[in-house]
Amino acid sequence: MLDIFIINWRNKMRQPLVVGNWKLNGNHQMVNQLILELRQELIGVDCNVAIAPPTVYLDQAADNLSGSCIALGAQDVDINKTGAFTGETSAHMLKDIGVKYIIIGHSERRTFHKESDSLIAEKFIAVKEAGLIPIMCIGETEAEKNAGDTQVVCKRQLDVVLKNVDVSCMLESAVIAYEPVWAIGTGTSATPNQAQFMHKFIREHIAQYSYEAANKVIIQYGGSVNSANATKLFAQPDIDGALVGGASLQAKNFAMIVKAASKNNMTSL
């Protein structure tokens, strides 16, 4: 019964979202050129699109994106609003320069900066309190996958937020990005069936807290998404777009991914 309920809501309530995570890449000239090319490539697309350049270029990117269909995202955020926190950037500061989405909990932050589930939950709340949209990344490592712990890991990463907030309220205008760590930057993506299985699991787990939230929340796939595999991924009923890494640094490749989401959105109506 739950499966039918979720699928019936898909076309009416969930607009696909494709986000380009530029990571530690870019320079002044590249930001100008890539955004110019993206604006030309993405005219008329029927899905939500955003890019997340490095923090130092966000203000420049905001100027270049003005009047376009492309929203601005940030790659990370601090949990504090203001104060003696050298080198950090608050959600309110990011909002002030036009940021709409903030990526939190990316596996690279979890691994290299030792970010805990509880810290990521605090970031989620800080982003929501600022009136912005968190993109919360979850996903298992190769070792966890091989041990058969994929669902356990993803459930744990979700529950640290779901058990401590009003789910119906806090997942309104929120995004979950399922990114299996073993697929990020490796060139080896999860198959459409593997990705769909986990997206369905995630949605059903959220539904245990709130059916309404489960049907509304955008669940993206991330991990070696490219123009060759995007169409089949987006054809899956519970995959609502993608968080794209390396392929987002080339305008034509990123545009092809966005157009695949846009085409699937139009054909599913």
Automatic annotation (TrEMBL):
Q: Could you tell me where this protein is found in the cell?
A: Cytoplasm
Cellular compartments per GO CC: cytosol
Determine the domain of life of the protein's source.
Bacteria
Q: Which reaction does it catalyse?
A: D-glyceraldehyde 3-phosphate = dihydroxyacetone phosphate
Per the record, the pathway is:
Carbohydrate degradation; glycolysis; D-glyceraldehyde 3-phosphate from glycerone phosphate: step 1/1; Carbohydrate metabolism; erythritol degradation; Carbohydrate biosynthesis; gluconeogenesis
Annotated positions binding substrate? 21-23, 185, 224, 245-246
- Keywords tagged on the record: Cytoplasm, Gluconeogenesis, Glycolysis, Isomerase
The molecular function terms in GO held by this entry are: triose-phosphate isomerase activity
- EC class name: isomerase
Please give the biological process terms from Gene Ontology that the record holds. gluconeogenesis; glyceraldehyde-3-phosphate biosynthetic process; glycerol catabolic process; glycolytic process
Query: Where do the catalytic residues lie?
Result: 106 (electrophile), 179 (proton acceptor)
Q: What is its EC number?
A: 5.3.1.1
Q: What is its main location?
A: cytoplasm
Name the protein family.
Belongs to the triosephosphate isomerase family.
Function, in words = Involved in the gluconeogenesis. Catalyzes stereospecifically the conversion of dihydroxyacetone phosphate (DHAP) to D-glyceraldehyde-3-phosphate (G3P).
List the NCBIfam families: tim
Subunit field text? Homodimer.
User: What protein is this chain from?
Assistant: Triosephosphate isomerase
Species of the source: Candidatus Profftia tarda
